[in-house]
Amino acid sequence: MHLTRVGLLSLIGTLAAASVFAQQGVTRNEIVIGTAQDLSGPIVQLSKPAVNGMRMRVDEINERGGIHGRKVKLVVEDHGYDPKKAVLVTQKMIQRDKIFAAVGSIGTPTAVAAMPLLFEKNVPHLFPLTGAREMYEPLHKLKYSFSPPYFDQIKAGLKHLVAQKGSKRICTIYQDDDYGLEVMRGGEAALKDIGMDYTERTTYKRGATDFSSQVARMKEANCEIVVVGTIIRETVGTIGAARKSGFNPDFLGTTASYFDIIHKLGGQAMNGFYSMGNINYPYEDDPSKNVRDWYQKYKQVYKEDPTIMSVYGYQIISYFEAGVEKAGAKLTVDTLIEALDRLTIPRDMFGADEFSYSKTKHLGSNRSKLCQIQEGRWRCITDHLSQ
Amino acid sequence: MRFLFKTNYQQDVRLFTHGGQVFWYTVLGVLLLVAPFILSEYVLSQLVFVLIYSIVGFGLMVLTGYTGQVSLGHAAFLGVGAYTEALLQSHGVPFFISIPCAAIMAGGVGVIVGLPALRLRGLYLAIATLAFGIIVEEILTRWESVTGGGAGKHVKPVSFFGVPLDADETFYYLCLFVVVVCALGVLNLMRSPTGRAFIAIRDSEVSAASLGISLARYKTLSFAISAALTGLAGALYAHKLSFITPEQFGLLVSIELITIVILGGAGALHGAVFGSIILIVLPQLIAIAKDFLPEGVGSQTGLQSFVFGAVLVGFILFEPMGLYGRWLKIRTYFSLFPFYRRGLFRRQKVYMKSDRLK
Asked: Which residues of B touch A88 (CB under 8 A)?
């Protein structure tokens, strides 16, 4: 009896000690990470290539033998862009899969709903696929951002474009939600800096398909530049309607409209459209051989052409890899954070800006470049713009 | 098989008809009370969602299952409850006042929707409630000074005189308490004259009116009660999610809520609970099953919606009485064995013809 009690106590003692030293999601030869994606909701066409890109990089890491001898296991969950499901799948990943970190999750409302759960269990939320400012503000030791914020993108881009073209009449059309407002406010901040204001502001509700009245109002106001807080279909719809009515201002969007589907859907009419981009758009005949090889490899594995989302997914895992590499052989959340806070990632083959993080700065870079559709494909016409 | 000999009129209105029921509900009660000690946090969290959706299910059961009125705008009541709770909480109102306020607010909105419902029936009512749902979502988006607009609103955990009850277990007990109170309330309602009037309206409006039941009054009341219950659930939902945006209360959610009643089985409170269990647990089961499926199938996009849709269609085709209806049939099959007949549960509704005269 006495013996068993001693045995039990020592067992409890060992378990307690083990739980102090062991890091959730990290074993001697494996790191488990999770990502919450939309595989059944409205943005599935963005999530799918992003997941493929992530898997591609994970496979590359594992073929090489892992990071410090640990292979990476990627758990992908579907939240269908619904915050309630995001809460549930996040709990599943934390408690069933015991993930070490959530990496590259998509969507703003879903990420905001999931973050408190992650932080409560000391799980970092790294490099989410959204340009909302909540991803690094307010500063929290467990959150690190990936995409330059929409606000900063449009602020830098609009200032550059106005200075270059000497335009006087700036207008905007934006989606009536948090995304559209961020874009509109970014433009507003840019104009305020140079002592101007919007000549005309128009809005539409998410899911709208007809933009003729907004276009007519902006035409009436003789706009020279139109800031568009639109995503894909609305961008094509707005520009198409404008061209049809003989109204040809410069249109400027964010990374949310920096997709090849814009010129594939809209055709000729989309030529001349400006968007802010954080990398060069990947095409099969990219001037860089590395990108061409990457493109072919992706195409071989997934039997389809990569999109820019595939590149984002690939980069996100690469950045995570860089952090883990730097954290050294003893991998815990604390060592990872310490490594990330000293991390600088140089410009890569895709043309991304240099990313650097510190204890007080969890946004890698807030700079983006001005790109334009020319002859049916995206071309970046500036380097990364500072504010 | 059990024979019930009724010797007293009270037996018709008792909550439990026989000792077996008392026993099984006690077992269920005890299991629910000890659940936080035996279940993992992940399962407990799902259980909390099941409880919250059960309350919505009760609300819809009163309206659709008992009174026979359709609503495609119930997410709006959920939203009104959630935003009322968030607002009151941010002004420092304690939860035992703010949660009932959320219910009252949603109930008040329910009365407003109930007014056109007096003049509309069937499909037209469905369209009116659909429009209502869209209007409320729009108001939540536009009224930025109050709701925070599309950027959403954060909700803090429930706190009791300044002490936050943020542990999952405490919140679970709060939800369980509310569910039990609501279930007893609805059961009580349904054995009162008001409840009988609801059922009469569902079965035939003409006969109900000729029995002296004021259609206008009872339909409005039904909407109000249903909305209040949904609002109550909305307040708990806001705390559980801790972050609400208008898009969480859109049309798709309304349809999701209707599926609770369809999957569970209209016409009995058990159906509401069964329906919520399917609604919450099925997607999770699919997520877990995905890990065991071959890579090509498991990573397929839209897998979840496909399985969910297939289950829903299957129920409508093969078991319109829902999961609870199926359970009743199985139970009757065994208790009557070998005398069970296929047509035993067929609904006989010859008096419906009189409604066509209208």
From this structure: 45-46, 49, 280, 283-284
> How far apart are alpha carbons A277 and A204 in whole angstroms?
24
Q: B243 in contact with A at a CB cutoff of 8 Å?
A: yes
CA pair distance A84, A135, nearest whole angstrom: 19
Rounded to whole angstroms, how far apart are CA atoms A345 and B113? 57
DSSP strand pairing (A274-277 vs A369-374):
antiparallel
- Global pTM? 0.81
A59 touches chain B (CB under 8 A): no
For residue B176, pLDDT beyond 60: yes
Pick the closest to residue B57 from B251, B269, B208 (CA basis).
Answer: B269
What are the two backbone dihedrals, phi and then psi, of residue B267, each rounded to the nearest 5 degrees? 105, 0
All domains of chain B, ordered by start, with CATH? 32-292 (1.10.3470)
CA-to-CA distance for B54 and B179, rounded, in angstroms?
7
What digits encode the pLDDT tens for the residues A92-106? 899 889 999 999 999
**Å from A40 to nearest chain B CA?**
4
Interval A281-300: pLDDT, tens: 999 999 999 999 999 999 99
Distance CA B234, CA B244 (A): 10
In the block, tokens 């037996």 appear at B11
Helices (H), chain A: 2-21, 44-63, 83-95, 108-120, 150-165, 178-193, 212-220, 233-244, 260-266, 289-302, 308-327, 333-340
- Name all domains of chain A by residue range, CATH numbers in brackets: 30-148+289-356 (3.40.50.2300), 150-277+370-380 (3.40.50.2300)
* Angle between helix B303-318 and B251-264 (nearest 10): 40
Q: Judge contact between B146 and B82, C-beta under 8 A.
A: no
Which helix (H) or strand (E) segment holds residue A378: the answer is strand A377-380
Q: Do A116 and B242 touch (CB under 8 A)?
A: yes
Model confidence over B279-319: pLDDT tens digits?
888 888 887 787 777 766 666 667 777 887 888 888 888 88
Closest CB to A177 among B150, B299, B302? B150
Spatial CB neighbours of B241, under 8 Å, sequence gap ≥ 6: A83, A84, A87, A113, B155, B248
Q: To probe the interface with A, which of B135, B239, B304 has the most A CB atoms within 10 Å?
A: B304
Q: How do strand A225-229 and strand A274-277 relate by DSSP bridges?
A: unpaired
Positive or negative torsion for Cα A106, B235, B144, B108:
positive
Burial A313-343 (b: 16+ CB within 10 A, else e): bbbbbbbbbbbbebbeeebbbebbbbbbbeb
Once rounded to an integer, what is the mean pLDDT over residues A205-234?
91
